[in-house]
Amino acid sequence: MVTLTTAHWVFLFWVLVVIVVMGLRKDPLIPCILGLLSVGWMVKGSMVGAFTTVFNSLIVAGNEFWGIIVIISLIVALSRLLSETGADYLVMSPAAKLMVNADVAFWVVGFAMLIASWFFWPSPATALVGAILFPVAVRAGLPAIGVAMAMNLFGHGIGLSTDYVIQGAPTITAKAAGFADPGPVISASIPLAITMGLVTTIAAYLVVKKDMRTNAEAHKLEREKMAAAAPSQRDIDWVSWLLAVVTPVAFALDVAAMLTLNLRGGDATALLGATALVILAVGCLLKFGMDGLEKITDYLRDGFMFGIKIFAPVIVIGGFFFMGKGDLAKSIFELKTATGFLEDFGIYLSQTVPLNKAFVAIVSLGTGIIVGLDGSGFSPLPLVGSVAATFEKAIAVDKATLAALGQMAGVWTGGGTIIPWGLIPVAAITGVNPIELARRNFVPVVLGFVATTIVAIILM
pTM for the complete prediction? Predict the structure, then answer.
């Protein structure tokens, strides 16, 4: 029988505080820091020990996340080069030619956004796809709100919640759940992602079709205004063409290598990161000559500023929830006898409370949604991974599937599909009201959550 100490209950108290604060759309960093201080003081027995616990947690979390921070920063830096050279326009041009009508435009924009998000992250992909495909899609008959829904659901929804190429989201979830690499979470997420993707995008497509019939005259004026707008001029040269060809081919070869050589986790990250950095370096030299020696510094600085901006709060949150895992708790407290608080609660629950698969699935879904309300797609991941590990100790469930379900819920909510404060990038580039976009997305996403949860229960 697991014995729960006062430190266990103090940790649980701060977990609940963090969830409440996130539900109120506030950043939970101060509760996490206070939680680390109080729990550290109780475990180490001194204020010095409490302060070292806070710092150690950041180092442990930073070590766990550093590879993902680097790869995202390098990808963003490369996207800056592609945009400045006009290579992004050349990459997207073939997709633009496919949009012969509104129906085709919805799916072309969506899949273009999905692919771009997998390789370049949703925020850079929003600028890339929006700037190039948005005017073409509207001229093809798709209303601006339809373009925004397609970009948002495919990019910040499917793309960010699966993250199969860069593997940032599944790596964080897997670490918190106790997996050595993201492979199990990625595999478990595939049927859930297919379910969530199909239900949400088909439902959204039907919503857009209804809107086109209801507001036909307004959308006609929208198309006429877009058609009258002058096309943007691009400074295209041979370097632009070279980057437009080499970049997608190189990343496609990386994906092929990942599949054939079964590269996961750090190996896959290393391959993608090195590819992005080499293309960035060669592209800077070819485009700017000797000035490229300085230009690459600007791109890398922009990329790492983006990466640190995204992950700074996640490191603090992750450090707090990593106290819940035994192996990481040992490093945080610098005690070989330390146990994971959440793991202990899992064993305690299994011995005292009757649980079933439906209950734990709903808890995982609800946790991801509530914590995701703060507008950060990655903030919920340390918690949902820890929750999956906790319930796996309490009941015979597939931990990977449970973790993947929580990841879906957290990213679809916090990544920005149903909360207005997370929809601003897509809303800004398409010129739609973020509140209206959230309202249009709400029913499709909720239907997706219901269907995905049912599938997860069956698979667990």
Answer: 0.73
